[in-house]
From TrEMBL:
<feature type="domain" description="Transcription regulator PadR N-terminal">
    <location>
        <begin position="14"/>
        <end position="82"/>
    </location>
</feature>
<dbReference type="Pfam" id="PF03551">
    <property type="entry name" value="PadR"/>
</dbReference>
<feature type="domain" description="Transcription regulator PadR C-terminal">
    <location>
        <begin position="96"/>
        <end position="169"/>
    </location>
</feature>
<protein>
    <submittedName>
        <fullName>PadR family transcriptional regulator</fullName>
    </submittedName>
</protein>
<dbReference type="InterPro" id="IPR018309">
    <property type="entry name" value="Tscrpt_reg_PadR_C"/>
</dbReference>
<dbReference type="InterPro" id="IPR036390">
    <property type="entry name" value="WH_DNA-bd_sf"/>
</dbReference>
<dbReference type="InterPro" id="IPR005149">
    <property type="entry name" value="Tscrpt_reg_PadR_N"/>
</dbReference>
<dbReference type="Pfam" id="PF10400">
    <property type="entry name" value="Vir_act_alpha_C"/>
</dbReference>
<dbReference type="InterPro" id="IPR036388">
    <property type="entry name" value="WH-like_DNA-bd_sf"/>
</dbReference>
Amino acid sequence: MADQPRVSATAGTLLGLLTERPMTGWELVAQAKDRVGNFWTIQRSQAYRELGQLEKAGLVIALPQQERRKRPYEITDAGQAAYLDWVRQVPGDESVRIPFLLTVSFADDVPSERFDALLEEQRRRHRERLETYEGHWATLQGTARRDARLATLALGIGYERAALDWLDQLPTYLGRDR
């Protein structure tokens, strides 16, 4: 397998999704968002760029265009081999980026009422994601190939609960008890 092209994490993710069925770029982005969206984002422009590179490398083929100029992609045997090589590699380190944490680090420069509004917005977002993940969890019960998806969702659910707990404690850390 040494002659297999090395693929990026984004390309590997797209190839992995294509092992399930042919999909358009739009569908691939939606599937990635559904499964790992808050931990690994893939933009549409990025997906189409990667698909073009994967096609040039012979790892996917574009199928005939469908209605509304939708073009599904299918993984090739070489793409399957490249995917399997990628998925078996040791993943790189996490790169956590939390924009609100930047605001928190400069909280002394944010008026209290504005900070409270930002904090409430963060709570809302994390509650919504938690509800979404819990809904996916309920939907996946009893389905085939659910174990890996449940493992991913378990991290998402745990993260959202931890984030909400941290947000609840944040005013105390900042000396802004309510």
